[in-house]
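[audit] Reproducing an earlier prediction to check determinism. Same input, same settings, fresh worker. If the tokens differ from the archived copy the diff job will pick it up downstream; this log only records the rerun itself.
[audit] input (578 residues):
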Amino acid sequence: MSRLFKMNSFIAMKGNERFNEKTELGATPLMLAAKNNDLKSCLALVEKGQDPKTTTDLGASLLHFASVNKRHGLEIISHFLGQGLDLSEAKDVDGEEPVIYAIRAGDLNLARNILRLQNGETNLLLFFVARNDLEMVQFMHAIDPESIKQRDEKGNSALHLAAEFADLKMCEWIIKQGVDVKTLNALQMTALHCAVLNVNYGREIVRYLVVRLKLTVYAKNSLSETPLHLALSTGNFELAQQLLDFGVKVKRNKSLVKQRDSNGRNALHIAAECADLEMCKSLIEQGIDAKTLVRVRKSSALHYVGCNILFGKPLVAFFVGLGLDLNKMDKFLYTPLHVALINQNIEVAEEMVKYGADFRVKSGHFNLLHYSVIGNELKSVEFLHSKDPELVKELTLLGENALHLAAKHADREMCKFLCEEAGVNPFSSNEMNSNVLHLAAANEKHGVELVEYFATEKGVDVHQRNVLLETPLHHALDKENLAVAEALLRAGANINVELAQNSLLHFCATRKKLQSARFVLEKNKDMINAVGSDGMTALHVAAKSGHFDLCKFLVEQGIDINAEDAFNNTALTYVPFY
């Protein structure tokens, strides 16, 4: 059976009608351009206001449509990944990712390249093993039987991945294809080590590997951990008990309970993080001092209670009753309440406040609300605001308010809450006279949506200059956050804005930002020979800074290498010689 016949059989088997429906219904002009045209066509539509983040009613994204474009798909996907889109989050209503669309379209090379962009791997069979998609695994095996023998970058075989992420049916099929049951990965882990990490199907896989295939339960990985060690350290107590039921022997040694792990934690610290009250009581009865601190962090058991979402609430009163201080800071200036809020463990945070935790405590530059904003922990911010509405009004030592911090670190929902619920002024500036758009330029993950929120919905000035006379667009180019730069231009920013008589291309050369220089010239090719202060071109500036790649790029774009500045010097005059 030929490879082409297998491919066509698969596509027919999976149903062309549904696939065609998902790549046609509700498609925007930008999606159709991604499907049928080139990157230039897509960028032209973005310039006209088309949103790359839009999805159809069937959940198909621009990335899905580009995945069926055999000629230009990879270029389009690569570009928009740099603009904030994410392959790992792109799933349609059937749970299908762009890589599957490429396979459906009959382009395995494109599918492999998409996978490489997504996670650095190119083995499609291993990818579908980890997705527990046996039908796709069998199809990929029919196309390329050798791929089942390959390993990922961590040395995992198909069986390792199946044991950790898939079900028993997948494991059995892989073993039937000849994969060695006793194979080890780069960390010297067996399939049994991986199986105890499998929350959904681990129990049946562990039974199969131990009872049917007789894998040893005492094998140690490169950290000298057996499967039982891993089950306990990851909190998978059901599988730990299963291993004990299968006869795993544990050496009885009362001194073990007081030993510490590689992070300096004893058993009580670990129990405070993931176990219940009875476990903590039992450990104390066996002689562990409740007030013992972790060696490096100097954190107490109460700090770890902050991480314990399932069992933490009653542990607060328990450890406070034993004399632990809720307001004691660790080496990193975190109190237990800090830890609870970082984990958005609101039930435990409420209990800590009830027993005396200070929610107005400051650590370094920030109060607790500031920390929660920086971590983009909206539930914690809402909790603190309900306790004290004045917290949101406090400034950091650098003169920034909560919204300034949110613009740099958080998402639209956080900023919306601070503006519309907590009453923070979106037009406020920090001590550098930078507004929220300047600050959002540093926000790689959420910057685009923040520009749309602040500039479009709130009317924040995209042209405002700070004390250095820089606009938000200057900041975005300095950070090489080109997705934000694009969003600022859509919001009305001026690509021809000048700073001290210098163009944005001069600015990029001064800051040694090659990718930003490319972006600027894509928007305005006429800027290539712009003359700035002292009669210098961008090539003069790049030469002074010794940035060879930028000089090379500017020359390739046609800049005049013989242009002289106000001092009659060409760019070559400024090239540093070492």
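[audit] rerun output stored. Observation attached for the diff report: Residues 128 and 356 are 50 Å apart (CA to CA).
[audit] end
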